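To assess whether ligand presence alters the predicted conformation, the chain was also submitted together with 5-amino-5-deoxy-1-O-phosphono-D-mannitol. Input:
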Amino acid sequence: MCGIVGVTGNDNAVQILLKGLEKLEYRGYDSAGIYVNDLQGNDYLIKRKGHISNLEAAVGPEVHGSVGIGHTRWATHGVVSVANAHPQFSEDHRFYLVHNGVIENYKELKATYLSDTTFASQTDTEVVVQLVDHFVRTQNLSTRDAFLKTLGLLEGSSYAFLMIDSLDPDTLYVAKSKSPLLVGLGDGCNVVCSDAPAMLDVTHDFLALHDGEMVTIKPNSVEIIDQNGNAVSRKPFHVDMDPSETEKGTYPYYMLKEIDEQPNVLRKIASTYTKESGEPNFDDKMLSALNQADRIYIVGAGTSYHAGLVGKKMFEKLAHVPTEVHIASEFAYDDPLLSKKPFFIFLSQSGETADSREVLVNVNAKDYPSLTITNVENSTLYREASYTLLLHAGPEISVASTKAYTAQIAVEAVLAKALGEIKEQTIAEDFDIRQQLGFAATGMQAIIDDKGRIENIAKKYFVKAPKAFYIGRGIDQTVSLEAALKLKEISYVHAEGFASGELKHGTIALIEEGTPVVGIITQKKTAALTRSNLQETMSRGAQALTIVRQGLSQPGDTIVTTDINELITPLLSVVPAQLIAYFTSLNKGLDVDKPRNLAKSVTVE
Ligand code: M6R
């Protein structure tokens, strides 16, 4: 949530900041701003509501400088307005600050130290920049010491800060706790960003910052100190990514590009995590730790949580290990009763979700083994877990997650097979995951090639619908949750995913003439039951539609997917639902990639 960029020592600061903000726009897009200084006494503060393009349009040719900071906002404290957009500044316009996170005790700090200060915004962030100014003026502290003193007062808060003192402008003051932040090492310049793709035009070498650290950055130096004031030396990591991977090319929206990429992602996962013989290919140490667990706990949020629900079925069927799946934000503060030998699996596309990270911090404090399955190398959840597996899905930019979901399921499937083999479960030994992922990739491509027909379905049944349902049983029910989430988050159709047998216990009261109800039918055991539940909705006026595996199809089915092993059918049944959501949003004229009220990476709890 919120994207941060900064640069010092580059005459192209304005372009670097704006380009960086464009790349980070998926993190928040309700307002944006930059502060730039040319070190010759000229500085510029420009902020606008709405997308980065509004900010870009407001930055005239006169705006120039070699140092600056920028921000794209997802509002937490204070409405969406120019005043609440960042950078926030001190009353005397000496200090400028951008922030990602939440200052929990900002009201107390304001009351204690700043009763005489005039505030220009409703944000928690402004309290921080006013405090720095306050300590510099009233206690004669240096900027660095005032910044450090302020950091020491922020109880239980999450923050990534980037600050400039306009009286000594070529220095960037940086601090981080819980919210992600990287320092990029350039040639004669240094940069700061929430996420590496924002700065790949400047550098591919980054330093990850740890919680509690404070950094002073000049064009040719980076000094990190830990929370006890000790100097920290850290090796940079190299990001081997082509900047074009984050472009959408000829696609109208990232979401469509990312849906289309799914067959290749499955092939990549098959070749990375299985040998040519078809055997899983994982680190033995990780497998042995997993094998010692008496229960697996999968933790995630949103789409990642839904992928975890599919994972549970696979770990229980293939490896016979009891598996619980938890919503990260619930698990973090619920203190659930754990088994004697728990093993935690964190699913997170971004690797930065604050709710999941909070659980991992507790897991680490208790020394439990953990595995993060993520798409982002060197992200916080990647760095802090005992073991990691990458999704290899390539950058996912659209707020609606698509390829990460199918990639998570594919990696879980290979892992469950590996564990099942260690436990000598025949069902796992007979499950040729490499071959099945190949079949799934081909089946996905067939659905994607038929997208014109799916667009017609979206136009006919969903674009004007005020509400819709996806229903199914077992693994199909888990996909119904993801299908409904896709539809609601980008098309604003009130959608629910439901256990088809549970509808008649209350929710069927919502069915009206024409309400679209999509039955997901991929499991032999429950196919007839779901069909009869669909009939019940039709008798009450619903427009019934089906997404069915070929072997179970009947004349009149709406979308038929190819046959693959029943354990991995979500890889196919979700794709029509992704496309229905995409085309519904598109045909309603909405911004598919940046739906209202949302942000891609949810870095506040
Ligand atoms: O990066 P993560 O996978 O941890 O993100 C979790 C959720 O915020 C994310 O899946 C969200 O639900 C998506 N917008 C769904 O499309």
